[in-house]
Design a protein that fits this description.
It contains six helices and eight strands. The chain is α+β, with helices and mostly antiparallel strands. It is elongated. It has two domains: 75 residues, OB fold (Dihydrolipoamide Acetyltransferase, E2P) (Beta Barrel), CATH 2.40.50; 169 residues, de novo design (two linked rop proteins), CATH 1.20.1440. The strands form two sheets. Strands 3-2-1-4-5 form a five-stranded antiparallel beta sheet. The chain has a three-stranded antiparallel beta sheet with strand order 7-6-8.
């Protein structure tokens, strides 16, 4: 049975050339989640949608058809495109790739869509400054944590696994996947997961998520903790956007 959907809020995650003038479009919407569309003729110079259907632009999208790849039949801007530049652009591509790799098609993503929209807008507001690097990292860590939570892989950050005792800032923990932080009884104890300080776990816990600190050592450890967790679900295939950040970033602490 053919389906027709009109004016659904959405963001383009990826565009891939298809045949002579068409493209395969991956987008995320709140009601239909991540989905694929065929945008026929969109790469033609005469296409009115060519400049509209672009990443990081809030859209209202319409499609029609059956099967896994319906046809894009319309798209219009829902506000101004978000202007991402330099490191913010690379971070936006990183977020898109995470969504492409970790979400399934045709599953409603109302909460995740809202998280993505908010994160993109934060990136779009960033301008070069002394604090821009920290703000970028705050946005990425918040997005990663909320993404994992929305997919059912939420992190235990405020209390010790199995005990319910509050994390202590002076304590060191072994963060074990699908278990959580386990306090080290012995500094020479074998590490089964990722070694992380209580200060970092507490900085990531709650709603502030790093906003209460400017300690760059905490930011670096938080980045590696989230990378350790995400890699478990991403598998062995490397993220292209992560490689791009390493090559192009003007702020080494974002990617090292």
């Amino acid at each position: 049975m053919s389906q027709r959907v009109v004016l659904q809020p959405g963001y383009i995650l990826h565009l891939k050339p298809f045949r002579d003038t068409s493209a395969l479009v991956e987008l995320i919407t709140p009601e239909f989640g991540r989905m694929g569309l065929v945008a026929r003729g969109i790469r033609s110079p005469a296409s009115k949608l060519r400049s509209v259907v672009q990443p990081f632009s809030p859209l209202l999208v319409s499609w029609s058809g059956r099967g896994e790849l319906p046809n894009l039949i319309g798209a219009e801007s829902q506000g101004k495109p978000l202007f991402l530049q330099a490191d913010a652009l690379a971070c936006g591509l990183y977020m898109n790739e995470l969504l492409m790799r970790l979400t399934h098609r045709d599953e409603a993503q109302i909460e995740l869509f809202s998280i993505y929209d908010e994160s993109l807008r934060q990136l779009g507001e960033l301008r070069s400054s002394v604090t821009a690097s920290l703000q970028l990292q705050q946005t990425l860590r918040q997005f990663e944590i909320k993404l994992l939570q929305s997919l059912g892989y939420g992190l235990l950050l405020a209390e010790e696994a199995g005990k319910g005792e509050r994390i202590r800032s002076e304590q060191t923990y072994d963060y074990q996947l699908e278990i959580g932080p386990v306090a080290f009884a012995d500094p020479h104890q074998e590490v089964f997961g990722f070694k992380v300080s209580g200060k970092t776990l507490l900085a990531l816990a709650g709603n502030s998520m790093l906003e209460s600190t400017t300690d760059r050592a905490i930011y670096k450890e938080a980045k590696h903790l989230l990378r350790f967790v995400l890699d478990r679900y991403l598998g062995d295939k490397p993220l292209l956007s992560r490689q791009l950040l390493r090559r192009k970033s003007t702020t080494p602490e974002i990617c090292n």
